[in-house]
Write a structure and sequence with these properties.
The chain is 44% helix and 0% strand. By secondary structure, it is an all-alpha fold. It has one domain. It is built from three helices and no strands.
């Protein structure tokens, strides 16, 4: 989910990435988060009540994010 264009200006990559369907990437992320929840339960810990994902690149694919994570909420913060 990390976009390389955050680190380097590569317009051809940015254009290519914009044309990709990232549904499978988000489905894999969901599976990994579920696995982490399962791991916590196996250790006898209470699973997280919510996940906080602080990746600004999610703003480019909100429609996919909400499709894969139907209960997701987005919080935008602003700093001076």
């Amino acid at each position: 989910l990390c976009a390389m264009d955050s680190y380097a200006n590569v317009p051809s990559y940015t254009d290519w990435l914009a044309r990709q369907d990232r549904t499978q990437v988000y489905a894999f992320l969901k599976t990994m988060l579920q696995f982490l929840q399962w791991q916590k339960r196996q250790r006898g810990e209470a699973p997280a009540q919510r996940w906080v994902l602080k990746t600004p690149q999610h703003l480019h694919t909100l429609e996919i994010l909400f499709r894969v994570f139907p209960g997701a909420q987005v919080v935008l913060t602003h700093r001076d």
